[in-house]
Amino acid sequence: MNRKICIVTGTRAEYGLLHDLMKGVQACPGLDLQVIATGTHMSPEFGLTHRDIEKDGIHIDKKVEMLLSSDTPTSITKSIGLGLIGFSDALEELQPDILLILGDRYELVSAAYAALIARIPIAHLHGGETTEGAFDEAIRHSITKLAYLHFTGAEDYSRRVVQLGEHPNRVFHVGGIGVDVIKHIKMLSKDELEDRIGFKFKNRNLLITFHPVTLEEGTAEEQIAELLAALVDLKDTGFIFTAPNADTDGRIISTKINAFVQDHTDCAIQFVSMGQVPYLSCLQYVDAVVGNSSSGLAEAPTFKIGTINIGDRQKGRLSSTSVIDCQSDRKSICIALEKLYSSEFKTALAHAKNPYGEGDACEKIIEVLRKFDLPKNPKKSFYDLP
């Protein structure tokens, strides 16, 4: 009997990372792919991106509606509760052998707890990482303790998962799954990309994604205002914005960006969901990723472009020499932009390396999913460090 691998996706960005792995499981003898879509995938506000999954030839076995139309702490907490109800029903029906989840989003808490209670082993991707500015940090480590198998992006992260009490025999360093996507995807040419996104690149171009720093209260409006104030004086520069996640205060950021784009239609554009191929293709033609998205640390270095990493949201992650860290005030961001365009920094970019590997994570993950001897009951003993 084939082993049923159920993969959960809750956002456009996460699906972009999981796409190749889903396809690999789908094609692997001895494995059956199951997919549960949840979170923003079913939201018109975020582009109904479940349709993109289906267009890619991936069947969605269950859709778990959990996202409330609000971004307050209360609504996020209620969404987690709705997710628990939905995932308990979905897992009861699908009866997977393994539930695979990536990262640290609050949607995944619901899936992980439902799987734990149902005694379904959890495989967790990208555990052991740190992001001190967001409650994703605590969610990620809690999922590590709920999970049975661990696939990490770097050796440092593997050590941290073991430090959390997970046995080294169940921890696999596979590298960053996003690098796989870059390695295998067919990129668009510049002309094709401009036609696809309806935007003409300028002499200089920045891809900007800014999310709320969820462990800080009431800072989203001020921080996005400071970022936009730093951008407004740049000359002959194109600004390509991607919308923030469905997080606390995310709508505040979207509103500010919308107003900026409306005032600068000649050089700025915003996307609710850009799509995987256009997004990665865009990284070929921009000078930097700006904001506080993990993409600036995990994917951008492969393209030998800069990253301006603003504030504490990604604090603690491994980063390349292509990453410029700065505070979230206008002055600090302007200094970072000046460094980005300096001849010294641009020369150094040619030697930047991605700390998340060279792009063979999916093959390694599938091999473990296919061969690892799973117990009937996923009991774990706490592993004490020697």
Describe the structure.
The chain has 386 residues and is of the alpha/beta class. The chain has two domains: 3-174 and 360-371, Glycogen Phosphorylase B (Rossmann fold, 3-Layer(aba) Sandwich); 190-351, 3-Layer(aba) Sandwich (Rossmann fold). It has 15 helices and 13 strands. It has helices spanning 12-27, 50-55, 73-94, 106-117, 136-146, 155-163, 177-184, 190-197, 220-231, 250-263, 276-282, 295-298, 330-340, 343-348, 361-371; strands at 3-9, 31-38, 62-64, 98-102, 122-125, 149-152, 171-173, 204-209, 237-242, 268-271, 288-291, 306-310, 323-326. Strands 3-2-1-4-5-6-7 form a seven-stranded parallel beta sheet, sandwiched between helices. The chain has a six-stranded parallel beta sheet with strand order 10-9-8-11-12-13. Helix 6 links the parallel strand 6 and strand 7 (171-173). The chain is globular.
Q: Count up the helices.
A: 15
The best one-word shape is: globular
The Cα radius of gyration reads 20 Å
Strand order of the largest sheet: 3-2-1-4-5-6-7
The largest pleated sheet is described as: 7 strands, parallel
Query: Which runs of at least 5 residues are low in confidence (pLDDT < 50)?
Result: none
Order of helical and strand elements: EHEHEHEHEHEHEHHEHEHEHEHEEHHH
The total of beta strands comes to 13
The fold-level CATH name of the largest domain is Rossmann fold
Task: Reconstruct the topology from this structure.
Elements: E1 3-9, H1 12-27, E2 31-38, H2 50-55, E3 62-64, H3 73-94, E4 98-102, H4 106-117, E5 122-125, H5 136-146, E6 149-152, H6 155-163, E7 171-173, H7 177-184, H8 190-197, E8 204-209, H9 220-231, E9 237-242, H10 250-263, E10 268-271, H11 276-282, E11 288-291, H12 295-298, E12 306-310, E13 323-326, H13 330-340, H14 343-348, H15 361-371
Parallel strand pairs: 1-2, 1-4, 2-3, 4-5, 5-6, 6-7, 8-9, 8-11, 9-10, 11-12, 12-13
Helix pairs in contact: 1-7, 1-15, 3-4, 4-5, 9-10, 9-13
